[in-house]
Amino acid sequence: MPLRHCLYALVGVLAAANTVLAGETFRCGQWIITDELSVAELKAKCGAPQSKDSQTVDVRGKAGTGSVSRGTTTIEHWTYEFASGSSRYVVTIADGKIQSIERAK
Fold it and tell me: Is the pLDDT of residue 24 over 70?
């Protein structure tokens, strides 16, 4: 295979991988909300969520053949819905950072 074809194939694979790795996004007014925003940016652009819940979970780490507690972390789920009947989105926040955005079912 010529080098040019290999490069085209590589670019295609990287583009596909980027699409797979990209999280869900949603529109909030004129803004596109992604998991790359800070929580402060999310609040500034979308305001308060319609609902939110949080839980504290143990963080465990490997120690020898077992695991030990490394502390706790707080996980929050913020739900946004902008018009009745439209899609709802759940933003998962861990330790004050957006971890994921998912379309609610």
Answer: yes
Q: Which of 65, 91, 50 is closest to 104 using CA atoms? A: 91
Q: What is the pTM of this model?
A: 0.69
Residue with tokens 């490997």: 62
Are 80 and 28 in contact, with CB atoms under 8 Å apart?
Answer: yes
Give the Å distances, CA to CA, from 15 to 9, 19, 51. 10, 6, 35
- CA nearest 97: which of 76, 70, 71? 76
Q: What is the pLDDT of residues 67-97, one digit of tens each?
A: 888 899 999 999 998 776 678 899 999 989 9
**SS (HEC) of the chain:** CCHHHHHHHHHHHHHHHHHHHCCCCEEECCEEECCCCEHHHHHHHHCCCCEEEEEEEEEEEEECCEEEEEEEEEEEEEEEECCCCCCEEEEEEECCEEEEEEECC
Phi, psi of 10 (to 5 degrees): -65, -45
Tokens of 85: 């009947």
